[in-house]
Specification:
Helices cover 75% and strands 0% of the residues. It is mostly helical. It has one domain (68-292): MetI-like (MetI-like fold, Orthogonal Bundle), CATH 1.10.3720.10. It is globular, with a radius of gyration of 23 Å. It is a multi-pass membrane protein. InterPro entries: MetI-like (IPR000515), MetI-like_sf (IPR035906). Its main location: membrane. Residues 74-280 form the ABC transmembrane type-1 domain.
Length: 293
């Protein structure tokens, strides 16, 4: 805040701070307060709202614990989101390392443009592209049939399709933080470790990853939270056996007409996701301030 006032002066800095606070209050705080309010109140007809039955309780939240199917989908969404974050990290880390330490400026620009251009279009359209790729008569099955890997078309929709779609959808949220962290690592440190006889895997484990842990944690946090809150990808690429918890929330709001139960489910998802993120950051010994950078 002091830096803001130093750079722009008192008047302009105050305007900037007020706009940020207004945005946080209107777009972050107010919706979440309303969600909590809905979650703690019963679903009543309009005539009974504000009456003696309209009291705060934990009934909507407790209902999730009592519903075996919804509870299983909820827990599956959490661990599956963690799996999405892990797979995205495995995919992005080698590329980020190569871009930061070995790629020439022209190679860097070409790869970044190739990765960024598809994200100029809407997430729904990108997911529909995966829907076409994974279709029974899609390019993937056609390729695998032509080279003899499979004997008949495979239905890729379901857990595999959701995983592939989410890794692709959120790859940049993992790649850029890791790339930015590794880019600041001096190549001399890697060369020194190699000269001392360290194996490649040990150089990454003891030198590169500790240096880039803030970027890795940032990428994992972003990817996990986006995956846990995703609706489009599981709705288009999923199957009845691979339902996401966000689909249950959507059904409560728009099909079941019970906004209170939907808000309660959304609140539980938000709280548990925040808890998982904070625990992961604590285990990785990374502060929220490092993630915010």
């Amino acid at each position: 805040m002091a830096e803001l006032y130093r750079r722009f002066g008192g008047g302009l800095a105050t305007v900037f701070a007020a706009l940020v606070l207004l945005w946080l209050a209107g777009m972050v705080l107010a919706p979440n307060v309303m969600m909590i309010d809905y979650a703690l109140r019963p679903n009543l007809p309009p005539a009974q709202i504000g009456g003696p039955d309209d009291v705060y309780s934990l009934a909507n939240i407790v209902a999730l614990a009592g519903d075996e199917v919804h509870r299983a989908i909820f827990l599956k969404t959490i661990w599956a989101s963690a799996l999405v974050a892990f797979v995205t990290f495995v995919v992005c880390y080698p590329l980020a390392y190569w871009l930061a330490q070995h790629a020439t400026p022209s190679q860097l620009g070409l790869v970044l443009i190739a990765l960024t251009i598809p994200f100029w279009i809407n997430e729904v359209l990108r997911t529909l592209a995966w829907y076409i790729l994974l279709a029974l008569r899609g390019p993937l099955n056609a390729l695998l049939l032509s080279i003899g890997v499979i004997d008949e078309p495979v239905r890729w929709y379901g857990n595999a399709g959701v995983l592939a779609g989410m890794v692709y959808a959120y790859i940049l949220f993992m790649l850029f933080p890791i790339y930015n962290s590794i880019e600041s690592l001096e190549k001399a440190q890697i060369e020194a470790a190699r000269d001392l006889g360290a194996a490649t895997w040990r150089i990454h484990w003891r030198v590169v990853m500790p240096h880039a842990k803030a970027g890795i944690a940032t990428g994992c946090v972003f990817t996990f939270m986006l995956a846990a809150g995703s609706y489009v990808v599981p709705a288009l690429l999923g199957s009845p056996g691979s339902r996401w918890f966000t689909e249950i929330i959507y059904n409560w709001f728009f099909e079941g007409g019970d906004w209170n139960r939907g808000a309660a489910y959304a609140f539980v998802l938000l709280v548990l996701c925040l808890a998982v993120v904070l625990i992961a950051l604590r285990l990785a010994r990374v502060n929220l301030a490092d993630v915010a950078k």
